[in-house]
Amino acid sequence: MTALVAPGSTAVPAGAAVLAARVADAQPGEAFLFWVLAAVSVCAALGMIFMRKAVHSALLLAAVMLSLAALYAVQDAPFLAFVQVIVYTGAVLMLFLFVLMLVGVSSTDSLVETIRGQRLWGTVAALGFLVLLVAGLGNASLGDSAGLKQANAEGNVVGLARLLFTKYVFAFEATSALLITAALGAMVLAHRERTAPKKTQKDLSVARFKSGDHPGPLPGPGTYARHNAVDMPALLPDGTPSELSVNPVIAAREGTAHMHSDLHGETEQQALEHDVEAVRAATARGAGAAAEGRAVVRSGGVSEGEGDR
Amino acid sequence: MSPGHYIALSAILFTIGGLGVLVRRNAIVVFMCVELMLNATNLAFVTFARMHGRLDGQIIAFFVMVVAAAEVVVGLAIIMTIFRTRRSSSVDDANLLKY
Hints:
- By secondary structure, chain A is an all-alpha fold.
- Chain A has helices at residues 11-24, 30-50, 54-74, 78-103, 118-139, 156-164, 169-190, 201-210, 248-253, 261-264, 268-308.
- Among the domains of chain A are: 29-104, NADH-ubiquinone/plastoquinone oxidoreductase chain 6, subunit NuoJ (Four Helix Bundle (Hemerythrin (Met), subunit A)); 221-261, no CATH class; 265-309.
């Protein structure tokens, strides 16, 4: 970096001024903060470019903006740091995320290049631009910073307000016009004219019957003495299972009609005998259990009764 | 830290944003890269304000933020409108003005 010293100034006062400026501008722990935040923001910015999902890009952009807010705070700009957090990270990025959710989170970039070699040449152009910027910066004499101790003597917000409402008051007023225009523009762009009248419940009902499909609810699955599950199809009057009564996902899994083989058996008579046997066995089991239960209850009741006396 | 460090960081972030604008196709991501470039310039403005010891740079950064907020609102509304008609948020699909 070559420092361009003004012709009139001698070396010793310039050095003293630089030293004084450095002392006035000292910020504790600035170097550490700068390197950490610079690394974070550059990595997050690179990640933002190379992430394929737009939501990840938005979150990494939030990381960049937060680290920049911290850098503003380090550089004696607390008001801008808060505005950065509230307006950018809070409002603008939330707007981005809203639009991303509306457009579709899964929308990723197509990898087809419309212009051949666009990625390569884009990278080359960006690198060339960076080289240009760095060369320009190397030639400029940036010197040391004067520091904002004096300008922020009354406080950063007061100092900004003094400038904003005196020197830049016209720009400030123009900003209000810009904001109103932007709000109106967004409303006009987002507004959608209704081209067809809104469908009433009657229209919806008519459309449902006109389509010729089953208008009502589909038949429910079968409920039987030994089976009541959603994968058991209902039986039609002629004894065949109705595929409509079962969820198509379940119906596709197994031959659901097969499940009824134990119900109607080989012949009707066999199925009837099966069922009668099953019912008898169940009744016998139930009677046994009930008898045991009564016995238990009686003994318990007796013991309680004795305790009462 | 000398201002040069901050300006260099600002230049790097600006270049990354420009690279994103050139390379990415999703209109929303392109927009986010533009925001990154605006933020990089804001960092340069804040650094220059500190370097000169005057708050004018911070005022400019403030105005940049205001304009960026307005721009985001309108830009995202335009992207939504295009998405509604074309079912796509790729910048390659909005080429009706090309021919």
